Every structure is written in C-alpha cells, then in structure tokens.
Amino acid sequence: MLKTNNQRIFLTAFIKPLEENNQTLSKKQFTQPKLDLLQPLRQWLDQIQIQNRKLAKFIAKLIPAQCPFERDIILFGRKIGHIPPMCKLNPLYNELVYLRFRALCYLVDQCGEDIQSYC
C-alpha cells in the first residue's frame, strides 16, 4: 500500500496473482482454433494476378478509394453529426483494398498511365 496526497493506492488491484495467469494459459491451450469460413475467398482475392489493362481499370473503378457511406450531417451550415465509414465492417475490406492497390500499381508500372482520375 502506498500513501500519496492523502489517497491510498492498493497495488494488488493492479497486479494479477500467479494463479490467475496460470489458469488463463491453460484455458488458451484447450481452446479450439476458430473456423474462418471466408479464408478461401480471402486467399482467392490475394492470388488474383493483374496482367491486363482492362481488368486493372475495371478493378480500380469498381473498388472505391474512400468509403462511400461516410458522411457529415450538416443542418443550417453547422455540422450536427457524422456517419463513420462502414466499409471497415466488411470482412474482406483489407483484401479488396489491396487488390485495388495492385491494380493501380499495374497501371502505373506496366502501362505507364496516370492514375489521378482513380483517386
């Protein structure tokens, strides 16, 4: 116990006993790995090879650069609310963004195109 500024701080509240730590380790050892049903789709998206200009342009146009659902709610010129980006709730969000990035890289590196129109 420490005493500072007439307030008592009990250190045991911040430190876990060894018994609890050992119990949590044993629980982790017996838990089953979670089944990810979307893993095959994630792998398929990651393995798509972009080797065609038309495909790269299609992907860059199809997948938006920013979440289209994010909005500021403005009433009489004042911001009264904000709708957060909901795209990150998509379980395939990271794979789709990476696919778009690869398509844009292909257009720049292989085709020599200016991609400002896609941003």
What's the gist of this structure?
The chain has helices spanning 18-30, 39-47, 53-62, 93-109; strands at residues 2-4, 7-9, 71-75, 78-83. The chain is α+β, with helices and mostly antiparallel strands.
Low-confidence stretches: none
Mean of pLDDT = 81
Range of helix content: 40-55%
The share of residues in extended strands comes to 5-15%
How would you describe this structure in keywords?
119 residues; alpha+beta; two-stranded antiparallel sheet; two-stranded antiparallel ribbon; 41% helix
Q: Can you walk through the features of this model?
A:
Strands 1-2 form a two-stranded antiparallel sheet. Strands 3-4 form a two-stranded antiparallel ribbon. 41% of the residues lie in helices and 14% in strands. The protein is an alpha+beta fold and 119 residues long. Strand 3 (71-75) and strand 4 (78-83) form a beta hairpin. It has helices spanning 18-30, 39-47, 53-62, 93-109, and strands at 2-4, 7-9, 71-75, 78-83. The protein has four helices and four strands. Helix 3 (53-62) packs across helix 4.
